[in-house]
Amino acid sequence: MGKELEKARDGQLVLRGQQGDRQALNELVDHYHGAVYRLAYRILGSSEDAADVTQSTFLSAFENLHSYRPEFKFFSWIYRIGVNEALDFQRRRQGGECLDESLPDQGPGPELVARHGQLQEQIQAALMRLSDEQRAVVVLRHYSECSYSEIGEILALPEKTVKSRLFEGRRMLAGLLAKEADHAGR
Question: What is the pLDDT of residues 109-144, one digit of tens each?
Fold first, then answer.
């Protein structure tokens, strides 16, 4: 579906949702649930936390559906809410307990699967060491495949700032992963 058709479809679903049509809201959840979950997972590094944040993102979105402005893409609006919910969740959690920066083991399996799982764990651990601002931009660009302008719209940032944060985030990730590789090679 083209971006204009998707925007029109989303606009119609939001309008119906604002009028109390639960089926329209269910269609929005069905369409965006996976994307919001993946976004939250990459920001938080935990499937359970990502599920909680995904749920709170949609609850917050639907409670504030009256504030949605149709000149913007619903995708950008729900992603902004998702990023904010994930970062708020992480800040609340850091205030009370330490974040576990590792993912569960992938379990026994072929060597290639094990290596891939280990690499994913290293990448996720490195992502968790970035600042919230850098992590959000890296996740939106590389895991959600948003354009610079979409990231700017989602995070309410100028495109120049998006590019700067992305550059710094990539540089930090490369350094952290190189350090991990050096450490593992010893």
Answer: 455 445 556 777 888 888 889 898 999 999 999 888
Amino acid identity, position 173: L
Residue 73, pLDDT score: 87
The tally of domains found in the chain comes to 2
**What distance, in Å, lies between the first and last C-alpha atoms of the chain?**
50
CA distance 37 to 176: 25
The model's pLDDT over 16-29, given as tens digits with 9 standing for 90+, comes to 999 989 999 999 99
**139-163 burial, b if ≥16 CB within 10 A, otherwise e?**
bbbbebebebebbbbbbebeeebbb
Tokens in use for 171? Answer: 């540089």
Structural domain range at position 12: 1-98
Specify whether 94 is located in the same domain as 115. no
Which parts of the chain are beta strand (E)? none
Q: Do the domain assignments include residue 85?
A: yes
Burial class (CB in 10 A: 0-12, 13-18, 19+), 170: middle
List CB contacts of 126: < 8 A, sequence separation 6 or more.
Answer: 173, 176, 177, 180
